[in-house]
Amino acid sequence: MSEHAYHRIGEVARIARVTVRTLHHYDQIGLLSPGMRARGDSRLYTRSDIERLFQIRLYAALGVPLREVRRILDDEGFSKAETLARHREVLEQEIARYRARIHTIDRLLEDQDDMSAEELFEGFESEELEREAERRWGETPQWAEAKARTKSYDKAQLAEIKKESHEILASFGELLRAGEAATSEEAVELAETYRMHIDRWFYPLSREAHVQLGELYVTDTRFQQVFESIAPGLAAFVQAAIEANSRRG
């Protein structure tokens, strides 16, 4: 396909396996506007337009809202190579999940009744947690970034994330039980460690944005239950440490 060739909307719809109506919608919302217009306002798409459509379909397949797809693709720092590499990781993770399901089916076909309940559901994610997270944060850039990242992690990485998070919260609990102030150097450093943990594994998180997240720790019952199960008063302690960390120069 030549870089300078132009393709009519029907041809692009056929190539990309979408409807003409979908392409009209993408144009209307500024997500994919054709590079050229012919007589009668006919849409003509370039190779660059078709590559952008490919990126749109990849993000849409990950469940990223279209308004967020537009923000990502229009970002001046957008790197096609990095994005494709990330998509490749996500697809490899999807393949691994499907292989796990196939393995389970094969074992069931062999009448292996010794499989544990946990083994039966290898390859599946938690629907309840997924739905709740999407309900609360599904329209945010952070959700899109976190979803893209976590889909690319293997079991070892997910175990490492869980271990790091547990250690950080346990350390907060120890500081609280030891009578340390939330504004102490140890607590504030730990808040920074917590911020960097989220920034590394899930989505870019500034200190200011961490403060907003910290407010959920004391207002959302789900967060409260997690923190309070470690030590009474821990949610407020962590939130105060995060605020103190945001005030550092």
Q: Count helical runs.
A: 13
Structural class: mainly alpha
Oligomer: single chain
Just give the CATH class of the largest domain.
Answer: Mainly Alpha
Low-pLDDT windows of residues: 123-129
Shape: elongated
CATH topology call of the largest domain: Globin-like
Helix content: 55-70%
Question: Could you describe the 3D structure shown?
Answer:
The chain folds into three domains: about 5-75, Multidrug-efflux Transporter Regulator, Chain: A, Domain 2 (Orthogonal Bundle); about 80-150, no CATH class; about 155-245, Orthogonal Bundle (Globin-like), CATH 1.10.490. It is about 70% helix and about 5% strand. It has helices at about 10-15, 20-30, 45-60, 65-75, 80-110, 115-120, 125-135, 140-150, 155-175, 185-200, 205-220, 220-230, 235-245; strands at about 5-10, 35, 45. It is elongated and about 75 Å long. It has 13 helices and three strands. The protein has a three-stranded antiparallel sheet with strand order 1-3-2. It has about 250 residues and is mainly alpha-helical.
Throw out a few tags for this protein.
249 residues, mainly alpha, Multidrug-efflux Transporter Regulator, Chain: A, Domain 2, Globin-like, 3 domains, 3-stranded antiparallel beta sheet, 13 helices, elongated
